[in-house]
Design brief:
five-stranded mixed beta sheet, 77 residues, mainly beta, single chain
């Protein structure tokens, strides 16, 4: 099934793009989508994610056509 991934902010740079589609098996979680996208599992704990505009967790299941948004929260001054 196809899922759209939108990368916001600093985590888009390593991917070289800020939006793309990923094919994953039925029943996949957001974590599995991001790993299939090229992110390393140990980095995912820092990401905030949303499914179709609603905040969620990495264990949230995805469906065909879902949009997953990813942001890496930063702070500084």
């Amino acid at each position: 099934m196809k899922v759209n991934v939108r990368i916001l902010g600093a985590v888009a740079k390593p991917m070289g793009k800020d939006a793309f589609d990923v094919d994953v098996p039925e029943g996949s979680t957001i974590e599995q989508v991001l790993i299939a996208s090229g992110y390393r599992k140990e980095h995912l704990k820092w990401f905030l994610v949303a499914r179709n505009g609603v905040d969620c967790k990495m264990v949230t299941a995805v469906s065909e056509g879902d949009e997953i948004s990813v942001v890496f929260p930063t702070s500084g001054g």
